[in-house]
Design a protein that fits this description.
The complex is a heterodimer. The longest helix of chain A has 15 residues, at 88-102. Chain A has helices at 22-35, 64-72, 88-102, 121-127, 144-158, 163-177, 191-195, 224-230, 259-272, 289-298, 307-312, 329-333, 340-352; strands spanning 5-11, 48-52, 79-82, 107-114, 199-202, 204-205, 215-222, 235-244, 281-283, 365-372, 377-385. Chain A is built from 13 helices and eleven strands. The longest helix of chain B has 17 residues, at 190-206. Chain B is of the alpha+beta class. Classes of the chains: A alpha/beta, B alpha+beta. β5 of chain A pairs antiparallel with β18 (387-396) of chain B.
């Protein structure tokens, strides 16, 4: 079995773009991904595509994947649209890795796209909060923020944690995102700002919630031979873990953890032959501040209840032992649902090639963690720097 | 009337919020027609109030709800102008599916017809009178209230219906509601109206074959507090007897329900041998007189709901009633179909969970693979308690509600949504968790660890169809 490598990764700007379409945004992401490939690369090399989207707004509900690749001029290649809510493109990447490792394809495009901000207020309401256990969660009046807020209420009750700890996630991620020209909310915020914003779903306030976002991202995955040919510094997919969980938060044994994250991480670490202590950085799924705290614990960065300490001590700051969300995370960079998973890979790819906006000192191993809904589907990928001579 | 069943149990439900006269007077610069009026919450209607009152009577009764053979409901404000709502009451109260149901409506005297149907039923009969009329805010809207009363007829009972009388007169224009309107109105021809009400009700009551000098309490038609006294002017009842059955200054004009709630109040605390009279009036016009004799002392706590309550401001009352704040959210998207909802009614009304025959785990909702052993099993029905503990909770801020709840939020404000942990109702061990909306004025202050209990409320309406289900109120 060949390994799979990322040889190119790019994203569109994340934000609100009334004059763009899901296809034009994906064009931007694709162009950036192709530009990031070190050597001459003809897009005819791409054998297959897996593209993630939830399909917010219902626009092109059927066959949006082929609509994107045909628009790009990748004429005739097989394209599969992947839907796993906010983890759609994490799963698209997983499909690409499987296609390459199996030998069915040499070079595969993985990516995602979402347009969320071009609808009327009324229409938007119908398309948010659709990835929980709809019959029970949404029809009790819960929103997407509401489910994570319920998680936060249980976490604050169970552990020595406060709203200030939630706010520290916003401060850190905004500081990182302010350096990222693609970020939707690319500005810094103070702890005071993040403590005193209006409530969205108590205890979560505006600064504890990601925005709604238009955006696209694209990753080029290659087998060993193609990686050697087209890249001087390919990034190896060392571990690909994924897991499903009960779709409703209320259906799980614990309200303060996401079991599918734990399982997906175990599988990724096992395959990569590493432990969390070997990580140099991580991009975790911080759709809401509580999600970043839960991720630290689910991914084994610390013991249960220790996540607030990591934030208070700056462990996950860029100059800490395990920087998290140097891209700005979903909080600052934005969260275009289907584009988020491969968007995280753009940051991992950049860090491991020393090209990031908040560049860490020579990182070798990084992780991306992509959660669908409140934990119904999760992917965790471990990426490793490959020294040119080793490949 | 020896075939009649006796009154074995009763119940009352009045919405907790009350609009005081001072608010009405400040808003309109007039003197208010009632001391205060009950304001139904945005998620309440005649059906939810009927269920609340019906539960009171069933709880007060010494038999199981499945023993009920007849349900008679009365209201002038059924949730829909056409479509039965009694089947939803049957389902919510756990009455048997072969129960005979009938609905009396179109008149404030409807409650009397339901009471007579219940008293003459062959088996145990539950009678519920529930109403929440509306009216132009400057006119009838100043006095309208809401509430419900329930009566369970079974065997000899604690009180016996001694006699009933009827009167009819072709006298229109006193109180009416045009088709497709939610507002009751009248021509406001004062002398004509008062004379019709007084004459019709007092002659009906006078005809009752009882010793009128011995009557202890009477509930007479009461759109405002002065009318019962005007009616009683022609009767030998003293002021105290009328006061015992007059609730309109606490409840407001609750349409068909006011006289029925007044009857419960009149019977409450009565001693063996006491005589109680009800005089119903239906515009158009008709009157019904009923006379009861108490056999066994009746609990005085029955009408406690009438006198409690919490004052609200006028704008809050207008919002809760839907005078302002109605909304229809355009568009569509992820949508739960009506049949999907209907399939889960046993869970939404009665919290029917499932017990896994393989591993004994409790599943809610009881469908799909077992949550513990992940086997595909046929769950055994395992009802949950209606009281449980909040294990997670949030408050959905104003403007943030899902589309189905936009109108509720406009009218009722931010609402809390919790995950509850609830034990099974029976002897066997086990708990289940489910998400549920909290309701009531203290509900947004609920925190993890608090205890809450279930109430049937309107959940949401889409395409004209209202979904009902349990919400939870702080204990």
């Amino acid at each position: 079995m060949t390994d799979a490598y990322v040889i190119g990764a790019g994203q569109s700007d994340f934000g609100s773009f009334p004059s763009e379409s899901y296809r034009s945004l994906f064009d931007d992401a694709f162009d950036e991904a192709i530009d990031s490939i070190d050597n001459d690369f003809d897009t005819d090399e791409i054998d297959e595509a897996f593209l993630g989207t939830l399909g917010v707004g219902g626009r092109q509900l059927g066959l949006s994947g082929p609509a994107v690749t045909e628009h790009l001029g990748l004429h005739g290649i097989p394209t599969t649209r992947v839907e796993n809510a906010c983890a759609a493109s994490g799963y698209a990447l997983r499909q690409a890795v499987m296609a390459v490792r199996s030998g069915m394809a040499d070079v595969v495009l993985a990516g995602g796209y979402e347009i969320m901000t071009d609808m009327s207020g009324d229409h938007t309401k119908w398309w948010l909060g659709v990835s929980g256990e709809t019959e029970w969660e949404r029809l009790s009046g819960t929103t997407f923020a509401g489910v994570y807020a319920q998680m936060a209420s249980a976490y604050l009750r169970e552990y020595d944690a406060t709203v200030e700890d939630l706010s520290r996630v916003a401060v850190k991620n905004h500081a990182n995102g302010a350096q990222n020209p693609h970020a939707q909310l690319g500005f810094e915020c103070t702890l005071d700002d993040a403590m005193n914003a209006p409530d969205v779903a108590a205890p979560l306030n505006l600064y504890h919630c990601c925005p709604t976002t238009d955006g696209a991202s694209a990753v080029i995955v290659a087998n060993e031979e193609a990686a050697r040919k087209f890249s001087d510094a390919p990034v190896r997919v060392a571990g690909a873990g994924a897991a499903s969980g009960r779709v409703g938060l209320f259906q799980r044994d614990s309200l303060t953890r996401i079991p599918a994250s734990e399982t997906a991480a175990e599988r990724a670490y096992d395959e990569a032959g590493i432990s969390p202590a070997d990580l140099d950085f991580a991009e975790v799924h911080d759709c809401f501040a509580i999600a970043e705290l839960a991720a630290y614990e689910d991914l084994g960065f610390c013991e249960r209840g220790e996540a607030p300490r990591l934030l208070r001590e700056g462990v996950t700051d860029p100059d800490g032992d395990l920087p998290v969300n140097t891209s700005g995370g979903l909080k600052s960079k934005g969260h275009p649902i289907g584009a988020t998973g491969t968007g995280q890979v753009v940051e991992a790819f950049s860090q491991l090639r020393d090209e990031a906006h908040v560049q860490l000192d020579d990182p070798n191993v990084g992780l991306t963690h992509n959660v669908g809904g409140s934990g119904g589907g999760v992917t965790v990928h471990v990426f490793e720097r490959v020294d040119g001579g080793d490949l | 009337m020896s075939a009649m069943s006796g009154l074995a149990a009763m119940g009352v439900y009045v919405p907790h919020r009350r609009l005081p006269a001072a608010e009405i007077e400040a808003a309109w610069g007039t003197s208010a027609p009632v001391d205060r009026a009950a304001v139904p919450a945005a998620d309440e209607d005649a059906l939810t109030m009927a269920v609340a009152a019906g539960r009171e009577a069933l709880t007060d009764w010494d038999r199981d709800p499945t023993a009920v053979t007849q349900l008679a409901v009365a209201t002038t404000t059924p949730p829909l102008a056409e479509e039965e709502f009694a089947p939803r009451i049957v389902s919510a109260l756990g009455l048997p599916s072969d129960v005979r149901t009938e609905t009396a409506t179109q008149s404030t005297a409807a409650g009397a017809e339901a009471l007579l149907a219940g008293a003459s039923a062959d088996g145990p009969a539950l009678v519920i009178v529930a109403d929440a009329p509306g009216g132009d805010a400057a006119e009838a809207g100043q006095r309208v209230g809401a509430g419900a009363a329930s009566f369970l007829f079974d065997g000899d009972g604690d009180a016996t219906l001694l006699d009933s009388t009827h009167r009819s007169r072709d006298a229109p224009g006193i109180r009416f509601r045009e088709r497709a309107s939610e507002s009751v109105t009248g021509l406001d021809i004062t002398t004509y109206e008062r004379e019709t009400m007084r004459e019709l009700v007092s002659t009906a009551v006078e005809e009752l074959s009882i010793d009128h000098e011995a009557v202890d309490a009477a509930s007479l038609y009461q759109p405002t507090g002065d009318i019962p006294h005007r009616i009683a002017g022609a009767l030998p009842y003293n002021g105290a007897a009328i006061e015992r059955g007059t609730v309109v200054d606490d409840v407001g004009d609750a349409g068909a329900a006011t006289t029925a709630i007044g009857l419960v109040a009149a019977l409450a605390g009565s001693e063996p041998g006491a005589l109680t009279v009800a005089g119903f009036f239906g515009s158009g016009s008709s009157a019904v007189g009923l006379a009861f004799e108490t056999v066994t002392e009746i609990s005085a706590d029955l009408a406690a709901d009438v006198e409690s309550g919490e004052s609200v401001e006028y704008t809050a009352a207008l919002r809760e009633r839907g005078t302002v704040g109605k909304a229809d959210v355009a568009g569509g998207g992820a949508h739960v179909s009506l049949p999907s909802w209907q399939r889960t009614i046993p869970q939404r009304y009665r919290l029917e969970a499932g017990r896994c025959p393989e591993c004994d785990a409790v599943a809610f909702p009881p469908e799909g693979a077992c949550p513990e052993c992940h086997e595909r099993v046929e769950f055994e029905v395992e009802p949950l308690s209606r009281t449980g503990e909040v294990v997670a909770v949030t408050v959905i801020g104003q403007g943030g509600a899902p589309p189905e709840f936009v109108e509720l939020q406009r009218r009722d404000g931010p609402f809390a949504v919790a995950i509850l942990e609830v034990p099974t109702a029976g002897e066997s061990e086990g708990t289940a968790r489910f998400p549920a909306q909290l309701t009531g004025s203290d509900s947004t202050a609920v925190s993890v660890g608090d205890r809450v209990t279930g109430r049937l409320r309107r959940i949401y309406s889409v395409e004209g169809v209202t979904r009902y289900g349990l919400k939870f109120v702080p204990r």
